[in-house]
Design goal:
The chain is mostly helical. The protein folds into two domains: about 35 residues, no CATH class; about 90 residues, no CATH class. It is about 70% helix and about 0% strand. It contains eight helices and no strands. Helix 2 packs across helix 3, helix 5 runs antiparallel to helix 6 and helix 5 runs parallel beside helix 7.
Length: about 140
Amino acid sequence: MSLEDAKAYFQCMGCSGFHMFREDEELYRQYEALRISKDLEETWRLDSISKYLDLFELLACKENKLWTIHSNLVDLILTSRSTQYLRRLSDATRHAACRGSKFDCLLMAEAIVGDQSTPMDRKGIARIEAITGQP
């Protein structure tokens, strides 16, 4: 596996070691053998976030499966060590909320405020923004 293959695999699996391992243990072992640093993974994660945001902003004008892209974005941003994309996601979400289906809007709102059904559920973008001081 080349470094470029590793990047594609990492991004294809949602930048998640859990998903990489679950879907294909052998590929995951090849990936692990490269000993890719957490910093490089973070760079790849930020690249994925940027691409998903571009796509989300484009599709927000077209009522087109916004929830799927939004959900991926939220997961990537909440697992990232960077807060640089919070404002852009917040702005894009506001723009999309009045264009998507009611169901999409409900799911996007839940991602913003967080799913509090169990203590281990993600806390939502609003909580992360409050903690980091990023409005």
